[in-house]
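3.2 Worked example (two chains)
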Amino acid sequence: MKIDVVFSGGGVKSFAFLGALRSMEANNLDIERVAGTSAGAILAGLLAANYSRSEVENIITQLNLQDFTDPPIVSKLIPLSKWFYLYYKMGIYKGELLEKWIFNHLAAKNIYTFSDLRSGYLRIVVSDLSLGKLIVIPDDLERVYGIDPMHFSVASAIRMSAGYPYLFIPKKLANKTAKRSIMVDGGLLSNYPLWIFDKQNGKNLRPVLGIKLSDDVETKDPNKIKNVFDMSQALFTTMKQAHDLRYISTAHQKNTIFIPIKQVGATNFTISENVKSNLIALGEKSTHEFLANWPN
């Protein structure tokens, strides 16, 4: 069966996506269009570039996440200067190594701009903090920024979506005003954009299946707030999840694979190989159990 797939954000938890892809392949599901937010955008980009499931798994499992930690040179020489960059540049790491890694893997499949992909087969969700808008790339580039979407870098779009606030220095994009927009993690405004392939009139071209790296909406654990730092984290988490949880609770739960990941931080770049293997196994198990009764 041919399906379209939407990947949620989730940082390093996204190793679980690999298990989900294993199960989909075993159940003879053929992925067509893909979309994603943050880490989910990376998976979506690789699949849109026509990497096979086994190739994607090989790429991701061989990845050393600490290779993406590229602080400015000054921060290496003067460690305390990282707080200067956090305040004025709004991030600790430049994100250039992340974008280069994405670019190289896409280039290996001759994918550079959206003109190199099948039209409509990849959508990336980004948050524009300057304009206060949720942006879908490439769809919104012409309307919002006056940019020809066919000449826009796919690697740059994915890097924007994966730009976790405060961790990576935000990328900037020229808009129709005199200033440039601050572009960050798409999960800030929609961490699970299952709506992205919805047709306003008529049925979808094919079934749309979403993968969300969390419990379902009925079993989400409450945030533990004991101090101002917990409150800050809770505010960020709520902003990421509140809209999407309400949306899927009323419309799309039946097409959502929930992978209940606990005690793994989204930005923990030092997780062990054992944790990675457990995430993959959990993703495969959760997807297998879901697909046993889908579609129904």
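3.2.1 Second chain
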Amino acid sequence: MKTRLHLAVTVLFVLLLSSCNKESIDENYVPKAENAVSVEQELLVMVNDYRSSLGYPSLNFSEVAYDYANDHTDYMIAMGKINHDNFSARASKISTEANASVVAENVAKDYASAKKAFDEWMASAGHRKNIEGDFSHTAVSVKKDKAGNFYFTQLFYK
């Protein structure tokens, strides 16, 4: 009887552990969507124009941040929702590869244009703080899902 109970508890524990994994999609096998390059460029110009209007330095484009932003945008599309899943790992990799001391991220979805995404980020204290932050580099990834909805990831670092 004790052996059966022990076995049942062990099975329940394993099932519980596997059911609590919120990241059910393997990031190594996420389909890649095509970038909306003109929207990305427009958003980068808006961010830097805004920063310049405040007397802040423009952010330099980072290929390292762009690669990680693209991976995360594809991941969000695969999940069907915006999220900051795996941000700590992304930030750590950017820190290592770009010698960054601080990394931040803005995400969005379903905004029909760069202007709308920018306006919504500016209306949010946390997103605005990142845009106005003491960063030196950035990259924006914008991609559409199969239904034509835009997903946005912007990474910042210094």
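3.3 Remarks
Residues 32 and 74 are 6 Å apart (CA to CA).
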